[in-house]
Amino acid sequence: MFYEPGKTEHNLPHDPFKACVVPRPIGWISTKNGKGQANLAPYSQFNNLTFDPPYVMFSSNQTVNGTRKDTVINAEETGHFVWNLATWDLREAVNITAEQVPYGVDEFTRAGVTKEPARTMDVPMVSESPVKFECEYHSTVRLPGNPPMGTVDVVIGRVVAVHIRDEVLTDGLLDVAKTQPIARCGYYQYTVVRETFEMVIPGMSEDVLYGLEGSARKNADVHSGAAGGRANAANASAASAASANALESAEST
């Protein structure tokens, strides 16, 4: 089949677009408004952007009333938000917090999850979640769309603190068999990640592999080595030029 969104019909009982982009990590985002009221909501359009320094993004479509979501308003107002890993054990709580409720309603209480204070900002985290990112708000990219819900706010934040429970680590690696993250698929479907497989790109240099691994420390080492190499090359070039000038001066006398 073939169709052009907004131009031709797909002739299916349900729109296939989101079902094509799967699985999508869930941005279970907690915030606090200017009055100190907590908010917790999941967003299926979430991902990391880069790793050194680490940035993440989530995108939030407008409500059916054409208004912006509480999470976006709070992040912009306070400058902070927290990402909490959505897991299999927390799936019902995640679903409850997806319900649209009046502004200022505490979704932590409604979903029956425990508030845990963040360390670097005044935003509650989901204590039961095994992985959390404390994020400083960076910017919002607003993409216009068709009313009422098509317009979307893409919120970008810098990760300034990371929480990982020791019990979900195996041999120093984050173990998805232990965290069992859930992700969105199409329609009303979800999936859970319990298995992984590993592939290393053949023929890649170690420098590139460090980037794929997302190692900020190794990235810094590569940069230092490259900078040192450039400095040594510059020094060698300067020394060569000085030697040539000295030789030319000696020959002229």
TrEMBL record:
Superkingdom field: Eukaryota
InterPro entries: Flavin_Rdtase-like_dom, Split_barrel_FMN-bd
Flavin reductase like domain sequence ranges: 19-175
GO molecular function: FMN binding
One Pfam family named in its UniProt record: Flavin_Reduct
Name recorded for this polypeptide: Flavin reductase like domain-containing protein
Organism, scientific name: Penicillium argentinense
